[in-house]
Amino acid sequence: MKLIEANKKVLARVLKENDEVKLINERFKKITGKDAFGAESPFMKESGFSFKKANQKLHSTLREADASSAFQQVLRAGVQNAVNSAYETVATTFEDWVTVIQSSKDTELYAPLHGIGFPRQVGPSEKYPQVGAAGLSIQLKNNKYGTMYSLERELLDDDQTGQFNRQAGLLGEYMKLLTEVLVYAKLASVSNMQYLDYKIPPSETKPADEPGSYPWSTSLLGGGKNKPASYGAFNQANIQLGITALMGQKNLLGILMNVNANRLLISPKSTFDASVLANSAYYPTGATPGSTGGAFSINPLKGIFDISVSRYMFDQTGAVNPNSSAWYLVDDSKPWFVVQMREAAVVEQEAPNAGNSFEMDEIRFKVRSRMNADFIDPRFAWQGSDGSV
Predict the structure, then answer these.
(1) With 0-12 CB in 10 A as exposed, 13-18 as middle and 19+ as buried, what is 143?
(2) 126-147 pLDDT tens trace
(3) Domains in the chain, ordered, with CATH?
(4) Judging by beta carbons within 10 Å of its beta carbon (0-12, 13-18, 19+), is residue 273 exposed, middle or buried?
């Protein structure tokens, strides 16, 4: 829970403390004397906020030219508020296990260290062995994402149902869901990944000296591995196999790492099976003769892992599939996978006296985000299946 709360705080800070949002708020304060995003914001009142009434009030208190200009600022602040509210409230699961960081650069550099060589016995009159440090050199560039939404001025002027607010909120909701899709795509890292029109590349953080496949491999540098020789179905035996394998994980120097799998990542297909495995008081599967366990024996998996279910789980073909058989075990106490946020969801409005806004009485908004997500070190995760089993 500490990780989830920390991630949500970072996301909220990125949403409300970037330069563009601060500028929107400053202009809104000059016009209304109130904070656009605070507790006293007119957008936060239970009765809702009417852009139509705001427009009428501004025209009655200001000169015509000032009122038109002021209304654009109020409108932009209102859309940004709707975007922020939807972004923060939409349900996603990536916050459960990734590490969200606030980015301040075009490209972030990471250099996770794997420690130094292991000590050994030193004999009489023998020199102490000199050891070196091993680490990874990784960089991750922030990509730009966005969408544009336009509506007729008449729809805004005559809106009595609040549907404009709801449509504006979808700009924020979809931007948050895009992050969820990006995270689970990078986690799968197969070829030809796509959701609707959004094409996603596999992991971009493979170290130059890492041999073979990456991020999922049976032979990582140093002797580690994070997938089985052949994928297995989602069941008790294969989960126990993954937990055991991660407890034997090796770093770049071949030293055993402190990896303790405590979270299961699955699609909706495996929800009920996972609930039984995680919560059943008694042995959740049948036992073969001569093996440990059976009816009325304890469940060794009870309470040792949490579950995150995402409908955006990818399968081996590179498609989002709520019925995907893919499953993963991860250690969510370590920052091995990051979501770096430069901008979460920033609203921009087209000038009202130019382009389509002037020629066709359209009001156009653009929402943009700058961020990226990827592995820092995949040794803290186990891919039980890519969806093919």
Answers:
(1) middle
(2) 888 777 667 777 899 999 999 9
(3) 2-109+137-184+339-374 (3.30.2400.20)
(4) middle
